[in-house]
Fold this sequence. Notes:
The protein is about 45% helix and about 15% strand. It is built from twelve helices and eleven strands. It is globular.
Amino acid sequence: MTAVPASIAADLAAAGRSQLEFDDNLLLPLLYGERDQHLDRIERQLGVSLIPRGNRLAIAGPASATEVARLALSRLYERLKRHNEIDTAAVDAAMRLAKAEIEDKSLSLWNDDAGFRTRKRRIAPRSAAQAAYVKAMREHELVFGVGPAGTGKTYLAVAAAIDLLMAGKVERIILSRPAVEAGERLGFLPGDLREKVDPYLRPIFDALNDMLPADQLAKRLASGEIEVAPLAFMRGRTLAHAFVILDEAQNTTPMQMKMFLTRLGEGSRMVINGDPTQVDLPPNSRSGLADALEALRGVDDLGIVRFTERDVVRHRLVARIVGAYEARDRAARGDDVTD
Length: 339
């Protein structure tokens, strides 16, 4: 991409107009999308006008929206030059990240360290909170990811685990989740241990299938390099040189959460994810996730990242659904505080 002269860029920005010039015309069909669907998506969501002319793209609209569109398109073009594909989800992510970076110039959301490499693909954050989550998992041995479904907490945790396993920085991955619906009593279910807990760990297995070839995943599961460890079976273990993920942590009791946290061993990392608004415990039972966040307040060397509906990376309607429920719950409480 060729830079627009600074004097021209300043005049265009002041008028709510901008112009991008690209140095590889072969990438433009991929950048613009089939029948310009990517440009149409940016126009609708940001309220700007995008006019392609040869290897140039004119952007017009409100100054703030024009800047978001310019940065998002620039980053998408750079992604294509690195031989990465883009789709509508990547376009939405680019707009989210561009907005966040413009609002906070100190954020670094586009560098290679902001993502993870797996055998199938590179996984990159798609919101500012996801970028903070990735950074926390790189820097801390214990990380809490707290927020609604669809914000990528589990998916990114699995990507981090695969990345470290492939790099030889951990020896195994341990996946755990409370089986609340079965009351932690799994014996009556048919099959072996993995088959008993498979319904509860399906989101984690879906993520693993997205990141590892089927034969490698089967081999690592068979060897114990990737282990399914139901929460009820974790007591008494010390988890050394492992990447440990506890999903749906809001459905643990305080005793279970304390037990799990104290399993952390030498050379291990632990990620605990949950949504405080989706507790399936019996009425009047305290969530172990809420209890741990309160008890560990002020403890150094751990990361806590909070997600909101703005970080939902599923269908756009999911973010609106989450926001509507949260707004109703705030109104019922008579305050403006969210978990």
